[in-house]
């Protein structure tokens, strides 16, 4: 009799545990991992990410569609149906020699090898100034997401709406 009671208690506990697991999955379906996003303060990473964007801007100014397709993020290309024919439409029109200057960056560690950077910067023309008169420079503000894979030593880039910069940062 005692053996039957022990078996019934064991079955009841197993069913209760299975019920708890099923209920927890139903009430919290597919919650994505939350990564902390912080302001980037490492100069070497800052300049590495800036050089990735500078390279991309150079491709845009020289209208190198094939190279742009190589650096543009694959999921972004797929979602926006980007091809060699329309890849330049994703970026602003750039004429002449320009440079990209990053003003602010945030980063998010995806895993041990991959970091995602949110970048705010400006495009400035490469001009030699004659300081005898004041010249007004035109600057275009742009936002990008750069993903760096340190293991494969590759990057991908995508234009960004800058939402993270509009919200501000309480850690500043």
Descriptive notes:
This protein has 172 residues and is of the alpha+beta class. Helices cover 37% and strands 26% of the residues. The chain has five helices and five strands; from the N terminus they run H-E-H-H-H-E-E-E-E-H. A five-stranded antiparallel beta sheet has the order 1-2-3-4-5. Strand 4 and strand 5 (154-159) form a beta hairpin. It is elongated.
Low-confidence stretches: none
N-C termini distance: 69 Å
Determine Rg (CA atoms, Å): 25 Å
The DSSP helix count reads 5
The chain-level mean pLDDT equals 81
Descriptive keywords:
172 residues; alpha+beta; elongated
Short description:
With 172 residues, this protein is α+β, with helices and mostly antiparallel strands. The chain is 37% helix and 26% strand.
Topology:
Layout (H helix, E strand, L loop, with lengths): L1 H26 L9 E3 L3 H19 L3 H7 L2 H6 L18 E12 L4 E12 L13 E11 L4 E6 L3 H5 L5
